[in-house]
Each structure stands twice: as C-alpha cells, then as structure tokens.
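Lecture 7, part B: from sequences to assemblies.

Below are the input chains for today's worked example.
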Amino acid sequence: METPVTLTHAEVSKLARLARIELTDEELTAMAGQLDVILDAVAVVSQVARADVPPTSHALQLANVFRADEVRPSLPPDAVLAMAPACEDDRFRVPRILQEEQ
Amino acid sequence: MSTLIHESAHRLAEMMAVGDITCEEVTRAHLERITEAEDQIHAFLYVDADRAMDTSRRVDAKRRSGEPMGPLAGVPIGVKDVFTYAGAPTTCASKILEGWHPPYTATVVQRMIDADMVIVGKTNMDEFAMGSSTENSAYGPTHNPWALDRIPGGSGGGSAAALAGFEVPLSVGSDTGGSIRQPAAVTGTVGVKPTYGSSSRYGLVAMASSLDQPGPCARNVLDAALLHQVMSGHDPKDSTSIDASGPDVVTAARSRDVTGMKIGVVKEFGGEGYAPGVERSFREAVAGLASAGAEIVEVSCPHFPAALGAYYLIMPSEVSSNLARFDAMRYGLRVGDDGTTSAEQVMRLSRGAGFGAEVKRRIILGTYALSSGYYDAYYGSAQKVRTLVIQDFSNAFCQVDVLVSPTTPTTAFKLGERIDDPMAMYKADLCTIPSNLAGNVSASFPAGLSAEDGLPVGFQVMAPPMRDDLVYRVGSGLEALLEDRWGGPLWTLMKEEGR
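Predicted structure of the full complex, as structure tokens:
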C-alpha cells in the first residue's frame, strides 16, 4: 500500500451493489474521490502493524454466554408485525426472491 | 423564566425529596423551556410531553404514599434517539426508520423508568451515530447554545445541547469513537464513556458493536455519576455485559480531591492541528491539578496517532455488517415494491433512498476493507494496531493512575465548515478513539473557555477498565478548582441570551 489507492467509478459501483445500496452517478463520483482520501489516511495501519503483533477483535476477552433453555414469553405476532412494510396471514410479505425462469 | 431549569439534577432531586417542589412543577418547567428554546437549538427529534406529565404526577403520588425513592427520582432526562423506548418513535435520525415505533425498550432506558426518572423526549444525533456535528441528521442539525452558528458536536449533539440549553438537567448518549465526549467538550458539559461492558447495549441500535457504549451526559460531575450508577450493571440480555459490580462512582464524584494522584499527560496529543486556545486551557487545567496536590508526568503512547486509522477501518467494517439488518423486509422504509421488482432490487432502492451520504460512505468503506485481497492490509492491520493501543494503555497505567489530554483538538467549528471534507470531520475524534479501541473508561469535563474564541474546551481523563471511579475523582477535583476560578459552573459565563 505504498502507492495511494485510486478507486474507479466501476469499483465503487461494484461495492455499492455488494452492499445493496443504489447510488446515483453523482453519488458514485463524489464517493470515489472521498474514499481515496480516507483510504490514503488510514493506510498508516499497515506500516505500524508488524507481522509479530497479534490481532485484537474485541476489548473484552469474550467467551460464550449460556443460559438455561427455558421457555419464556415472546413478543405477540401483532407487535412483531406492527411495523412491517407489508404483511399477510401473520407473516412478513416480501418481494420475490427468485427470477421468473427459475 | 423559571430558575428551576438552571438547577443541577441532584439539587432538583433533593428539593423534591424534602417537598419544596413537585415533580410536576419540575417537568413542566423543562417542557416550557423546550418549547421556548427548540426553534433555535433543535436538540430534540421527539418531545414526549403528555407521557412525561403523566409520569411526573405518578412520581409525585408515589412520593406522597411514602414509598422509598431513588437519588434521581423525578428528574427529567433526554434520551438519544439511538435507544429504543416503547411508545415513542426511534429514528436514529435516519429516513430509513422514519415513524418506526420499537416494540421493546432498551435496558438503560428501562433502568431510568424504574428509577422514577421522567423521560421528556428523544434527542437529535448524526444518522445512526455517524458523525461529529449532528449535520448528518436526516432531520436537520442541532445548534450549539454557546454560539448558534456552531456545531454542538456529534454524534450526540442533541443530548449535549439539551443540557447546555437548559432543556434537561440530564441526558444519555452512546459513544463509539467520541460521540458522548466530543459533544460534551464543545458544549461545556460533562460526558462519560464508561468501561466497555459496564452499561447494557440491549436496545441501543448497533453501529460498531465492539466499540459502542452507552453513558451519562450532565452539567456537573456528581449528576453524571448519579446517572452512571442508575444506568450501569449487568444485563443478561447483552452477552458483552460484564457480570461484576462496578466501582463506587458517586463517592468518587463527591471527593473533590486529587491529592496524591499520578496523572499522565499524553505526549502525542498536542502541537500541530491543535488550536492554541484549546492547548492553553488544557495546560492551565493540568497546572491547577498539580497545585491541588496531583503529581503530573508526561507519558508517551506511541501508537495513539495510528488509532484514528485503525478506527476508520474497524468501525466501518462492523457498520457494514450491523446495518445489513435494514433490508426493507420486516420494518423500516420500503421503496420500489411494485410487484415486479425482486427483493434484492427493493433492498437496493430502499437503502439508497433511506440512508444519508455518511452512512452510505461508511458501509461501502467497510465492504471494501473486508473484501478478499484487501482484508489483511486493512482490517487485519487495524486489529493489530488495536493490540498496540491496548499495550500503550497497559504500559501507561503501570506508571500513572489516569491519562489526560484535550478531548478534541479544536473548539466548536462552524456548521457547514467540514461537511464536505470527511477526513477533517473524522479528526475531531483523534483523542477520544483510543479508549473505544481499548474499552477503558474515558470522560470529558469542562476546562474553561478558549482565550481565542470564548468557546468551551474539553478536558479528557482516561482510566483503566473498571476504574470508572478514577475519572470521576479527577473530574470532581478539576470541577472544584475551576468553579472557584469561574465563580460557579462554567455555564454562568454564558452570555445571557443563551440562557
């Protein structure tokens, strides 16, 4: 990462697609420039991080937390579905997930 | 105007306890102040006036019946709009959650309800807590009561401005990289990011789960400690909640004594990029602590300057994962569902329409940092820097009890000044980020007004994990000596129109 990163319009477009975010051409262009500046600034980490340093993903030494497997009341269906964009027969109604030909 | 709004939370609680005033009077005075001030400040996204008045009458009735009441019973409080509170909307200042009513209440909010506190509303913030100015709120920025053309800090600018504008005596925030402390610094208030795991994240809409921590915001040190005590404690609903009792922060906040403490000044946080007025107020506060009996030494934390880079890789990576839940399927905005579009298209259109520019930028940055081929160079290296920052803290805390620095390099900048320059905005968090990466407690206390522009300067105190009492002890000592100098709390120096 010695040379500054330059993200192309197409690369940002691909990332936006992966992240499921629709962007306008204007947004893509503005973001590509801003991401270059940010990536250039954060690249310092690869110079500081020596190979022998172990990574830390969390400040606490985490272990699994278990609880007794007891039946407890859950939210009633009305409360769960109250804020749904669309629902039907006590279920969330969602757009199709398969293509016509499938 | 009622002077009740200028009282501290602990004084209001005492006055209610002895029967000098009622909770109904206290609540009404603050709601009236909100009505009067909101046109100018815009600290609130939602004011829950009717329910607050109902609560106040219930609290008064409970007190009359002779039931035991907690130390903050009857005190009004504002809640950052990133916490769920059933019966009121939670938007996180985003269009994607406009009108969303959560079916459950956050643990820290429930603890305020159980303590008979009066929740008056939800405070403004940067969208999903991403920003340092509240300019990323989809509902318009908050204005700093010290100078209305200035930012109130962020992301919790609403919670801080509501205090500085006397709309509430207490509020609650969340801090991922400085979102409690930087707003406290630029509004002349107190903000504490507790030890990670000491207050519950259940019902806090997640930004970066390994960094997020709820904490208290107040106008003085004792008020913050009393709220800290109400909020914190183990919660089985948060798997990262520490199952041990925390230190006695209230006794520490009453001590007002730093005699014999060893205080380390972080060598790396100063010089280029720091406003001279900020450095001067900071140095004067350090000198004051020395004259009050603390021992001052300079401590080097060589990896702190790299923390900003590590943070802007780790945080967006966690953001890109956490915000995947806003998929337009079960709640929130849905756009483009015309019967012909696929679920994937609806997700893209909804997220494109519902998220603001900064949220999109961070999700895409995180997606890039985690993508194959770049993972080791970016996310992997950032995790190593996180280790080095933790080692810097460990080494420092072998030499000193606490570390201190300015909270943020400048005073409140002008609204609009940095909105088109993300890196300039990110640098506001330069000094606050190390404690989020390491999980230790850190707080900002008023250090006075900058000689350059007359705006508040923040003094940051960092202590080891589970030693939250130490930041309150230093904060109370600093408050005691500075209030002698100012002739009262810092806000007494505020020009009359601000009050």
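Note for the exam: The domain at 8-303+387-498 of chain B is CATH 3.90.1300.10 (Amidase signature (AS) enzymes). Keep this in mind when comparing with the next example.
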